[in-house]
């Protein structure tokens, strides 16, 4: 009971700190981003969400149905492959959660289908952040960046920020997809 009351007062405290603050979530229709949008709205933030097509109900209905969305969620069209596409959504935001990314598990041409949007798209988003003097940017990485390094993953092992996948192991075990996912981190 006491814990519940404490939780309630923490949420209220968070909401009052968030009031009037504007944050952007890219790829808002996606799995991870939808949850980020929900949690931000619950905490009282105003959210600029980007989707590729704001007129597509299949991609947006679950966002528009969220508590607080009527008053504090604005959706913008933005595509990772278009330079400057994120400017409008990011303008006026103090924080950006960048979760838009192509996510494929079977792929013919990783360079064209995945790398172009993931790498150039992230740079596009970062350029928009710079223009808008955004204070904080959070980028979702891929588990492929840390999983394949040949180290044991038993319950006693702690996976921390020193873990990175080894490109040769990705190539060997998972083929091109995972290899290309981590290559940009080396370059
Ligand atoms: N889900 C997980 O458990 C997990 C775990 C570790 C890391 N991650 C990483 O987290 C990120 C998001 O993953 P997710 O599972 O939420 O994927 P998801 O549900 O497929 O969402 C990806 C989002 O990116 C958008 N997108 C794709 N290509 C785009 C483009 N060219 N321009 C603009 N937007 C584009 C999609 O928009 P549309 O709706 O328009 O297609 C979609 O909203 C990825 O980088 C993924 O690697 C996910």
Question: Would you give an account of this structure?
Answer:
This protein has helices spanning 2-18, 31-42, 57-64, 69-72, 87-90, 110-131, 167-174, 176-186; strands at residues 22-26, 46-51, 73-77, 95-98, 136-139. The chain has 8 helices and 5 strands; from the N terminus they run H-E-H-E-H-H-E-H-E-H-E-H-H. Strand 1, helix 2 (31-42) and strand 2 form a beta-alpha-beta unit. The model has no long low-confidence stretch (mean pLDDT 86). The protein has a 5-stranded parallel beta sheet, with helices on both faces. With 187 residues, it is an alpha/beta fold. Helix 7 (167-174) packs antiparallel against helix 8. The chain folds into 2 domains: 22-140, NAD(P)-binding Rossmann-like Domain (Rossmann fold, 3-Layer(aba) Sandwich), CATH 3.40.50.720; 142-181, no CATH class. Bound molecules: NADP nicotinamide-adenine-dinucleotide phosphate (NAP). NADP nicotinamide-adenine-dinucleotide phosphate binds at residues 27, 29-33, 51-52, 59, 79-81, 99-103, 117, 140, 142-143. Keywords: Oxidoreductase. This is NAD-dependent epimerase/dehydratase domain-containing protein. InterPro entries: Epimerase_deHydtase, NAD(P)-bd_dom_sf, NAD(P)_dehydrat-like. One of its GO terms (molecular function) is oxidoreductase activity, acting on the CH-OH group of donors, NAD or NADP as acceptor. Residues 23-145 form the NAD-dependent epimerase/dehydratase domain.
């Amino acid at each position: 009971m006491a814990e519940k009351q404490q939780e309630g007062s923490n949420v209220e405290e968070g909401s009052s700190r968030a009031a009037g603050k504007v944050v952007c979530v890219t790829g808002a229709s996606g799995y991870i981003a939808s949850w980020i949008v929900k949690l931000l709205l619950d905490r009282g933030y105003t959210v600029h969400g980007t989707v590729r097509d704001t007129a597509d109900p299949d991609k947006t209905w679950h966002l528009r149905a969220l508590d607080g969305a009527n008053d504090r969620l604005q959706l913008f069209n933005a595509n990772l492959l278009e330079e400057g596409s994120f400017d409008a959504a990011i303008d006026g935001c103090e924080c950006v959660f960048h979760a838009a990314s192509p996510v494929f598990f079977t792929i013919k041409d990783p360079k064209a289908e995945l790398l172009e949007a993931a790498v150039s798209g992230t740079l596009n988003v970062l350029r928009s952040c710079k223009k808008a003097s955004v204070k904080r940017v959070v980028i979702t990485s891929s588990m492929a960046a840390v999983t394949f390094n040949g180290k044991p993953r038993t319950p006693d092992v702690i996976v921390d920020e020193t873990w990175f996948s080894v490109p040769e192991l990705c190539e060997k075990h998972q083929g091109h997809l995972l290899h290309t996912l981590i290559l940009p981190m080396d370059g």
